[in-house]
Amino acid sequence: MFLGGEYPYYRAHLYDLARFEITKALASMMGRVLLSNIG
């Protein structure tokens, strides 16, 4: 379980990680779309 004091930091870390993963996924998807449009 999380202590009250460290929970916000943990949640912020998870949020940053999720945002990074989502950005990476979007970038790869956009890259694939661009490649298929060009080719």
- In helices, the fraction of residues equals over 70%
The N- and C-terminal alpha carbons lie at a distance of 51 Å
Oligomer: single chain
Contiguous uncertain segments of 5+ residues: none
Given the structure, what is the number of helices? 1
Biggest β-sheet description: none
Radius of gyration from the alpha-carbon trace, in angstroms: 17 Å
User: Which structural class should the secondary elements be placed in?
Assistant: mainly alpha
> What is the 3D form?
rod-shaped
List SSEs in N-to-C order: H
Q: Output mean pLDDT.
A: 84
Beta-strand residue percentage = under 5%
**Count of distinct strands:** 0
What would your notes on this structure say?
With 39 residues, the chain is mainly α. The radius of gyration is 17 Å and the shape is rod-shaped. It starts with 6 loop residues before the first helix and ends with a helix. It has one helix and no strands.
